[in-house]
Amino acid sequence: MIVHVHNLADVAWDLRTQQRAMGNDAILVAHRRYSQHDPDLCLLLDGFVGINLELLLHGRLFKTADIVHIHGGIRRSQVAFGTLKNKSKAKWILHYHGSETRMGYGLYHEDLADAKVVSTPDLKRWHSDATWIPNPIPQVFEPPVQAKTIGGERIKVGHFPTNRALKGTKKVIRALDPLVQEGLAKLLIIEGRPHREIMETMRTVDVVVDQLNDLSIFSKVALEAMAIGIPAISSYDDGIFPSDCPVLRANTEEELRERVLNVIDEGIDDKLRSSCAGYVKRYHSPHEVAARLDEIYRQK
């Protein structure tokens, strides 16, 4: 049995769902408020006493598991994991997703890990002994949006921030405002909505601006857009991703404006749409990601 603990960006839910589809017994243990879907086992308590007490109350689950897969690292205060590991015969996986590593709050009790994985390649800077396992993107199997003729028309640019400060939303607005004022583009900023609604809106835009910051990566939003054939623009370091990555790179406001102007002038060809969807299917197919994880689970 595979026990996923915590659910950052719904990655654990997607993995658990795919693992079940492949015939594995997998469950998700997480707080409901941090998940798009209902976990199989909802954690109700939080804080130093609450989370540790509740984890210990589920001790039998950890003791009988074959794999314990913890997402977001382990915080200093989450001392119950040490007790649970001592009573467990399972292989323990620590899965780092981003902020817990960059900000440091999830980098404790790493000695409990039998193996480590990271969601984005930049995190190898902190976890040199980890394996990069790309996030699964279920939308990769949804029908792509129908190509639209743009050439000179007012285009719809979508921006879907989960955190405006982190995603550089002010910079995005400032960069594209001249195009909006000229009537060349319409900027849609959608946030705080259920994921289903986000994806429905995403299907109506011509191009997605993921983020504009100095994190050196693009986010899951860019991948979800490309999975349905919508080009994504983002700031990132192209040297740490596969060479066939089709994300349109823009690391400054000026570069972002130029990228959107290029779309306005030249449109979006079918080759780019196809390469976007193909990239996500090659690296982020839930089946492929789960298969790579299974190899790590099985390693001695």
Overview of this protein structure:
- The protein is of the alpha/beta class and 300 residues long.
- The chain folds into two domains: 2-136 and 285-298, Glycogen Phosphorylase B (Rossmann fold), CATH 3.40.50; 141-283, Rossmann fold (3-Layer(aba) Sandwich), CATH 3.40.50.
- 38% of the residues lie in helices and 16% in strands.
- The strands form two sheets. The protein has a seven-stranded parallel β-sheet, with helices on both faces. A five-stranded parallel β-sheet has the order 9-8-10-11-12, with helices on both faces.
- Helix 1 (11-21) links the parallel strand 1 (2-5) and strand 2.
- The mean pLDDT is 93.
Number of separate domains: 2
Give the strand content.
Answer: 15-25%
CATH architecture of the largest domain: 3-Layer(aba) Sandwich
Q: What does the overall shape look like?
A: elongated
* Ends distance: 17 Å
- The total strand number stands at 12
